[in-house]
Amino acid sequence: MSSPSTSPGDRVRAHRKARGLSQSDLAAQSGLSATTVKFIENGKRSLTLSAAQKLAPALRIDDLAELFGPQVGTLPMTGRLTHPSIPAVRRALTNWSLTVTGEPQSVDYLRAMVDTAWTTWHTSQSQRTEVGEVLPALLEELQRAARLHTGPERRKVLALLAQAYHQAQAYLAWHGDQELVWLSADRGMSSALEADDPVTIAGSVWYSAHLLRATGRTDEAVERLREAVDLIGPLVEAGPRDGSPARVADHTETVAMLADLHLCAALTRARAGDQAAWAEWGKAHRIVTTMLPEGYAHPWTKVGTVRTEVYGVMCAVELGDTASATRLADPLDPAAIHSTEHRARHLLELARLADLEGSREGVLHLLGQAAHVSAEVVSFSPVGRDMVRRAVETAPAYLRASAVALAGKVAIVLD
Fold first, then answer.
1. What is the pLDDT of residues 124-163, one digit of tens each?
2. Alpha carbons 400 and 335: distance in angstroms, whole number
3. Taking Cα atoms as reference points, which of 30, 48, 383, 382 lies closest to residue 215?
4. Of 285, 374, 280, the residue nearest 318 (C-alpha)
5. Which is more confidently placed, 374 or 44?
6. Dihedral sign of CA atoms 271, 272, 274, 277 in order
7. 287 located within any domain
8. How far is 404 from 393, CA to CA, in rounded Å?
């Protein structure tokens, strides 16, 4: 189909045309954005192993050497980064205790454990390492409590257990076995449904939609998100049942969840090259600016004014809209982003924007800033790893030493 001298991008194009697919078709089936497919084919973005593994099923390819070329030998369809805590997390996800005895921890204690884990995720520079160390015990304690509590207390524990499963999903997303990622998402949804709490269920849909989007099931993700909006939208319109602090806090969390659903739909549509992303983003923006307290950030997802602007930048970059991305990014101070993990990922998006604009110096500078915020985010992010490798491969002489030093900082082994 293609000669040995052709590039990976040329091979992707040849296989796509042989299958009778447009770039948009291939993007939808692979879970990559149309912009990413376009840039891989024209050589503006290198073909990573992660991207190739997503493209291969849509292209009916069994051996990735067909994309990378015969000189690499046979490449398997699987193979991901790993992390030292994965075996312990796997055991916690797949360990079923047939007998549970003793007294369970209180709901307040368990909520504090979940809050602490999420705080660590959002404040640590080594969020995967630190959360990976506490996740197994957290899951086991909540699983045990869900077996021992009864009535309303059990439903509250199940809602917390759903959050713990979704924290496992976030931890596993970039470096876990795919079946574990799906297992954590499914367990989270099952716990949420058993808790019978609309906001918890909507939150589980939000987490599941991220996974559906990543595996190319865009339409399904959008439909599930729409159903979740329909579920909690009436609760938002009804307002708190009374003016008590607890009721107001619960309503605020429901409003934040509604905004988060629209933001997830916006990014899902953007990665499919759908301009309707902006309508979803606009809905989230109106909810956040008119219904949430100034400076609010959800304790687990961090949705609020700043997070909404970050999503706007992501959507624009995915759509290849550099003008909108720049307009939204320019007034946004990364230091205002409440989460260390989100701040590093935002800087990666800005590096992607610099890449779109052809600024090698800008890419390297922003990658360095992201690594300074959290080297783990750059190290484990497929996008971050790809950009660091390309920075080394394409850097002119005056930038190469800096690029190589960055690769060492984020533990990327160079060929």
1. 999 999 999 999 999 999 999 999 999 999 999 999 999 9
2. 28
3. 30
4. 280
5. 374
6. negative
7. yes
8. 9
Q: Would residue 186 count as lying in a domain?
A: yes
Burial of 241 (C-beta count, 10 Å sphere; 0-12/13-18/19+): exposed
Does the reported pTM lie above 0.70?
yes
**Tokens describing residue 361:** 């110096």
The percent of residues in the chain predicted with pLDDT above 90, rounded, is: 67
Same domain, 245 and 274: yes
C-alpha span between 27 and 110 (Å, rounded)? 41
Question: Which residues form the domain of 18?
Answer: 8-72
Q: What is the spatial distance between Cα 143 and Cα 137, in angstroms, rounded to a whole number?
A: 10
Dihedral angle, C-alpha 409, 312, 166, 114, nearest 10 °: 80
Residue type, position 33, single letter: S
pLDDT in tens, 349-394: 999 999 988 899 999 999 999 999 999 999 999 889 888 988 888 8
Buried b (16+ CB within 10 A) or exposed e, 75-96: beeeebeebebbeebbebbeee
Boundary-marking domain end, from 338, 363, 392 = 338
Whether residue 333 sits in one domain with residue 405: no
> CA geometry: angle at 399 spanning 393 and 404, to 5°?
55
Identity at 298, one-letter amino acid code: H
| Model confidence at 74: pLDDT above 50 | no
Query: What average pLDDT does this structure show over 54-65?
Result: 81
User: Which string of DSSP letters, residue by residue, matches 378-411?
Assistant: HHH-HHHHHHHHHHHHH--HHHHHHHHHHHHHTT
